[in-house]
Amino acid sequence: xxxxxxxxxxxxxxxxxxxxxxxxxxxxxxxxxxxxxxxxxxxxxxxxxxxxxxxxxxxxxxxxxxxxxxxxxxxxxxxxxxxxxxxxxxxxxxxxxxxxxxxxxxxxxxxxxxxxxxxxxxxxxxxxxxxxxxxxxxxxxxxxxxxxxxxxxxxxxxxxxxxxxxxxxxxxxxxxxxxxxxxxxxxxxxxxxxxxxxxxxxxxxxxxxxxxxxxxxxxxxxxxxxxxxxxxxxxxxxxxxxxxxxxxxxxxxxxxxxxxxxxxxxxxxxxxxxxxxxxxxxxxxxxxxxxxxxxxxxxxxxxxxxxxxxxxxxxxxxxxxxxxxxxxxxxxxxxxxxxxxxxxxxxxxxxxxxxxxxxxxxxxxxxxxxxxxxxxxxxxxxxxxxxxxxxxxxxxxxxxxxxxxxxxxxxxxxxxxxxxxxxxxxxxxxxxxxxxxxxxxxxxxxxxxxxxxxxxxxxxxxxxxxxxxxxxxxxxxxxxxxxxxxxxxxxxxxxxxxxxxxxxxxxxxxxxxxxxxxxxxxxxxxxxxxxxxxxxxxxxxxxxxxxxxxxxxxxxxxxxxxxxxxxxxxxxxxxxxxxxxxxxxxxxxxxxxxxxxxxxxxxxxxxxxxxxxxxxxxxxxxxxxxxxxxxxxxxxxxxxxxxxxxxxxxxxxxxxxxxxxxxxxxxxxxxxxxxxxxxxxxxxxxxxxxxxxx
Length: 694
Prior knowledge:
The protein is an alpha+beta fold.
């Protein structure tokens, strides 16, 4: 009996011992849950390269330590944590709460911003602090400005070479029309939608003043050295060889509803107070920007735009030499995030094609060629070489939006991910995402993203949502095809049983200036971009048998909405369409704009070539649309008159159509209730005309 009891107890002990690790593992590995409407609506942040460069600023070096801010951009009020990281072993230490750290040249002190627990996009209460990196000292608050120093788009900081002063750009608040995007301005629990309503755009706005102050870190004294109403002041920096600041003012001149940029590189002599323009309209284009002085201050790295329109962050890379000549570096268009190597002999930056934006290194001479560091699909941001030349750090965003701090050992060229800064889809049942390419009619290689359902079965056939991105020059993003502000959205539609295809097009300007100039010569902007999208649809339908191309739906937001609307006049395969804040064509702006501005923007004018205009106009060809279409406009958005006209044309022709008009909301919907409402209506529209298998 005792032997039997001992055997039984032994079996229980062994069984429990085996099961405990399994139970612990099952508790840790929670099953992924489906993406819900709530995930789409509540997730904030735009995942384009231009905006993520603000959200995830350049990593900083304090001797052999990396300093980086880790934030959850999806959780309002969560704030950020600043951590130090050893690049060799990945050991981390929390330093303090705050955002956007800047380490001084000595490597001992950092300046950073703190918003007192508010949402990262809250424009109030953000102040500047300093803190010793080693020693666990409490942060010291430097500024006490009423209303704070401004939002993440409008504040910048630069240390002097002696670490005694900081130059601080401030701009409390946003321009009047844009204030509607602040969540605190729009408390609402119900949608503000009018179905088939009307309305006019809000009054015009003026840009707020941008102020640059020089602060004495020890005494707290300050003086204002720049105070002007411009849209953006970028890349604030100190010129090491003299007592001067370098910065890039960008102003916009509005003519009717089109505009022209003025971008320049300016210098302020802090001894005399004199401001002068160093560079403007170089290389025959509209402007220059993103200037950074070399470590010895003798040369200036900058982006030059040789194109007809100025597109910040989308320029060629050049160097202003000490003798006044300009060296143009052979990297190609769309270089961003460029920075000098500590020895001043080389430059790091980011270049490449859509969703394959990679860190490169190039010597600072015209005959140098770039060497690319990272081969993974996605977007690299903000390369940062260590001062001892041993490490290179940068931010990498993969096709699921996971943001990591990545480093390369410059001795053995080994890469590793040190830290996950953000993983917005963690715990969710996500789509499989792949980068796809195809050949347009004229031979141009175009890229796009393809999302397949989480429970994908290759033997089945799935309807497909074709989402034409907005922003035009932004290129591909991870924002989703309807709400355009959530990385979860494409995965939501995939979870509903749709394949999602997000194609690029050449006017995104990620393919170089030559194809744009050819479009100008041929007067074929809308036709050519539409063909880029449709050739991508053709390729997906040909290559992937699981796509049911008899159940296609089309979406587009902003400029993507303009192109999607035009596509509906050219192609009749789509069972349904949703056009969100689509913009029009030169017809609706012809009364108030100059021909020069219109031609630069649209590449084709009715007044100069009526036949070409007719071929490229959604308004002229609106009668050809036979696709059931939902149009969405908002009171403080684009509110295109052309879109309203097209809706009325569909109504007259008996085509199923509906127009939604959201009061007190923006170009990209900000009210939570409105986003829920629009997403729900779009889903029902898709289910009605192109339902998934389930």
